[in-house]
Design a protein that fits this description.
globular; 2 helices; alpha+beta; two-stranded antiparallel sheet; 20% helix
Length: 60
């Protein structure tokens, strides 16, 4: 892996998010360097991918 892969800028919205699958809360970290369809966060408990639009909606 290149160092660019390891040092991605991460946009972290404030607050926590409840996973739509396991219902556990976590601090989402959205990778803003990915293409729009791949932007989102992974639940650390069940590994479900949560799209960035749901992360942004939960932050408001």
């Amino acid at each position: 892996m290149s160092s660019a892969t390891l040092d991605r800028p991460v946009d972290t919205p404030s607050g926590s998010l409840a996973c739509p699958h396991c219902k556990k809360s976590f601090q989402p970290a959205v990778d803003a360097t990915q293409p729009p369809r791949l932007q989102g966060a992974k639940c650390p408990h069940c590994k479900l991918f949560v799209p960035a639009r749901l992360v942004a909606a939960a932050a408001t």
